[in-house]
TrEMBL record:
Pfam families: Acyl_transf_3. InterPro entries: Acyl_transf_3_dom, Acyltransferase_3. It comes from Methylophilus rhizosphaerae. This is Peptidoglycan/LPS O-acetylase OafA/YrhL, contains acyltransferase and SGNH-hydrolase domains. The chain crosses the membrane at residues 46-67, 74-95, 115-136, 187-207, 219-248, 268-293, 313-336, 342-363. Residues 41-288 form the Acyltransferase domain.
Length: 384
């Protein structure tokens, strides 16, 4: 269905929905004000996006013939939309912390949120690089994107120490691929977006100061256009300039989270169509935010118990899911020597999901939550 709808058609529909919402809001002066710092639906959304990323990875490792640029593969084998939603979420939820705490306290809190679970998963990913290569080479059926995976795994070993040093600091996205091959995906492929997050945290305060110089739409669009132009020039996905425009839009959604300023959202969306299908993430994110205003069905779905559980463990799930996929696949192919493609696909998908859920819940309970509490304890209790 996705490929049959034109971008202009989607754009037109989005504008129509948003304008109708604006008219409705203007007719409802007594509508309740929603606390933008406590939108539970965004937690649920984060959980489902993490699950979407897992789907895109597991179906290709299960040797399902899905192409990320065609048909159903545009959804099931293409995680770029989910990652774009993650970026919008970060731009939105980080804005409050970045504007109410000192830069030092903000960085400490974000570091304790990001690094502990990540470093554990990085260490395991490094330890199983050889195993991962053996699994891919031993898989007897054609696998989509097999050459890409083998390349970044072999490059991880060939340039081991430079890759490891940069990954430990989460700064690998700052190094061009032309300088260090597979810099974005070495060891732990999904960590390309984590270095992106860390780079954003380091400069978020400056972006906030620039943003609050003016609330005028023309100023915001001028900044957005500059960021879009930067993204066209700097195309390495793990480098902040390639996605800073999307972080900025997430921040603008937070900045104008007011029932009388929702009309700005479709304007940001239309301008961002210059980036192609990635802009569709803005539409999805905007619909969730809009639903949160009016107690809509989307809000209730993303606030149900399953969604909130997925949201709670989403970061650990994102970090650990490839480890689960590789280890499960290794046992099935190399140890048990399964020769049924269908059975392999069914077992890999089902078992790796359970494995990922269990490990991420364990990470959340024993690592993430204690580190979050500790960071709050050592940073200033009073906002600046």
């Amino acid at each position: 269905m996705l490929q049959k709808r034109s971008i202009p058609g989607i754009c037109s529909e989005a504008i129509s929905i948003s304008m109708s919402a604006l008219i409705y809001n203007m007719k409802q002066p007594g509508i309740a004000v929603v606390n933008k710092e406590k939108l539970l639906a965004l937690d649920g959304l984060r959980g489902w996006m993490a699950l979407w990323v897992w789907v895109t990875h597991v179906v290709t490792m299960a040797t399902l013939p899905l192409v990320k640029t065609h048909g159903i593969g545009m959804v099931l084998a293409n995680g770029q939309y989910a990652v774009c939603v993650f970026i919008l979420l970060s731009g939105f939820v980080i804005s409050n912390s970045a504007t109410t705490h000192s830069w030092g306290d903000f960085i400490i809190r974000r570091a304790f949120r990001l690094f502990p679970a990540y470093l554990i998963c990085l260490a395991i990913s490094v330890a199983i690089v050889g195993l991962s290569i053996e699994l891919i080479e031993a898989t007897p059926w054609p696998m989509m994107r097999i050459d890409d995976r083998l390349k970044y795994l072999h490059d991880s070993l060939e340039h081991f120490w430079p890759h490891l040093g940069l990954h430990v600091l989460l700064l690998h996205g700052l190094v061009p691929d032309s300088v260090l091959s597979s810099t974005s995906y070495a060891f732990m492929g999904q960590a390309w977006s984590l270095t992106l997050e860390w780079q954003y945290y380091l400069i978020a305060g400056l972006l906030m100061k620039l943003s609050f110089k003016s609330k005028h739409l023309g100023f915001e669009l001028a900044v957005l256009i500059v960021l879009l132009m930067m993204a066209k020039v700097f195309t390495q996905p793990s480098f902040i300039a390639s996605y800073l425009w999307l972080f900025y839009i997430g921040h603008l959604f937070w900045k104008h989270f007011d029932q009388h300023e929702l009309w700005r959202y479709p304007v940001y969306f239309v301008i961002s169509l210059a980036m192609g299908p990635k802009a569709l993430a803005i539409l999805l994110f905007g619909l969730i935010v809009y639903s949160s205003f009016h107690d809509g069905r989307l809000k209730h779905f993303f606030e149900n118990r399953v969604s909130l559980f997925l949201g709670k463990i989403s970061y650990g799930f994102y970090c650990v899911h490839m480890i689960s996929i590789f280890l499960t696949g290794y046992v099935l192919i190399v140890v048990l020597k399964l020769d049924s493609r269908v059975l392999y696909a069914v077992l890999l998908i089902s078992l790796s999901l359970v494995f990922s859920l269990v490990l991420s819940a364990l990470l959340n309970r024993t690592v993430e939550q204690p580190m979050i509490r500790y960071a709050r304890k050592i940073t200033a209790s009073k906002p600046r």
